[in-house]
C-alpha cells in the first residue's frame, strides 16, 4: 500500500510542480531547517556582539563615505532615468521601470549534493513565488525554485540544470549561460568560434525569457577557447555574485506590466515646465 | 504489545528527527558528498530492535518528510524506505542472529538498493549525468553503522516515564 501511495505521489508531483501536500508538509519540516541553521546564526550574532569599538567606528566611516559617493551618483541617475524614458517615448518604445525587493537571509542547510539549491527564510507568507529572480549586491544569484510557507528554495545560476539568457554588455551579443555544477563557473556553450567575445567582457541579463529583468550583471568572461573542429567555442565565465559567502539575498519583484508610453504632448509639457523653472 | 522492551515512541521519534537534522547539516562540498543516509540507518535499527512498533508506516511517513526536507520529488524516499523496511521486517528474526560482520553486509545492500531506487527515479525525472561519487554515501553509511548501532543502543537503554 505504501508503494502505491508513493507511486501516486511521485506521478502527481511529476505532473505538477506545485501542490498542496508539499506546503502542508513543509510546515512540519521547516522548523528543522531553522534548528539546523541555529548554530551558524548564533555564532554570527556572537561575532557581531564582540566587535570592537574601533572596528565599528572604522566601518561606520567607510560606510558613510560610500553613502556619499552613491548619493551623488544617484543624483545623476535620476536625471538619466528621466532622459531615458523621454528618449524611449521618442522611439515609441515602452520601458520597464521600478523593482521592489525583499531581503532574505540564507539558512545554512545542505539540501542535496550535486545541486546548487539554497534555502532562505522568506516564503509565500511574504508573497514570494516561484521563478522570481534573486540578486545580491554584486549580481544575479539565481531564481526562486520552490516557494513554501516559511522558507523558499533558490536555484543558483551555477546549478547544472539552470540556464540564464545573457547578453555581452560591450556589444549586445545575445547568448545563454548555463551552470556548470561548480560554484565559481558558468559556461556559454552556444557561441561559434568567431563570436565577438573576449576575456573580461561583462555579461548582463538580456531580459529575454521574462524571468530575469534586463540589465543586471551576471558574470565576467574569463576564458575563450576556439575549437576549430567543433561547431561551438568553449567559453567560461565567473559569476559576479558572491555565491559561496553571502548570507543576505534580495528577492526581486519586477513589475510585469511595462510603464505605459509617454505621449508626445506630455513630454512637451514637461519640457515647458522645465523651461518655466 | 509491550513484549520485551520499554522503548518509548518518544525515543524513536526523537532519534529520527535527529537523523533528519544530520541529513541537512551544512558541510563543505566534499563532506556533503560523503554524508550518509542517517534516516534510513536509524529506521533499520529500530525495525530490527522493535519490529512490533516501527514498521512501514514509520518508514513511509519519515520518508515523506525527508523528501520534503531535501526538496526531492515527493514520495521517492518514502518509496525506498518502505521497501527497505519491509525487507528488514521480513528478515528481522534471522538478522538478529547474524554476526556483526554479516549484519554490516546486509546494511550495505540495504543502502545500495535504496540508492539504486533513488537513482532510477532521478533518471526517470530527467536523465542526468551523475558522478561516481553518487554511490559514496552507501560506503560511508555502512562504515557508520557500528556508530549508529552503538549510539542507538545507548539511547534505547534510557527509560522514560510514559
Largest sheet of chain A: 6 strands, antiparallel, barrel
Number of domains of chain B: 1
Give the overall form of chain A. globular
The number of distinct helices of chain A, counting runs of at least 4 residues, comes to 4
Structural class, judged by helices and strands of chain A?
alpha+beta
- For the record, what is the CATH homologous superfamily label of the domain at 163-240 in chain A? Rod shape-determining protein MreC, domain 2
CATH fold group of the domain at 163-240 in chain A: Thrombin, subunit H
The coarse silhouette of chain B is globular
Average pLDDT figure of chain B: 81
Output the radius of gyration of chain A: 23 Å
Q: Rounded to an integer, what's the Rg of chain B over CA atoms?
A: 16 Å
End-to-end distance of chain A, in Å? 79 Å
Describe what you observe in this structure:
Chain A is an alpha+beta fold and 277 residues long. Chain A has a domain at 163-240: Rod shape-determining protein MreC, domain 2 (Thrombin, subunit H, Beta Barrel). Chain A is built from four helices and twelve strands. In chain A, the strands form two sheets. In chain A, strands 1-2-5-4-3-12 form a six-stranded antiparallel beta barrel. Chain B is mostly helical. Chain B has helices spanning 9-23, 29-34, 38-49, 56-70, 76-97, 100-125, 136-157. The mean pLDDT of chain B is 81. The chains are: A alpha+beta (277), B mainly alpha (162). The interface between A and B is large, with 36 and 40 residues.
Looking at this protein, list some descriptive labels.
heterodimer, A: 277 residues, alpha+beta, Thrombin, subunit H, 6-stranded antiparallel beta barrel, 6-stranded antiparallel β-barrel, disordered C terminus, B: 162 residues, mainly alpha
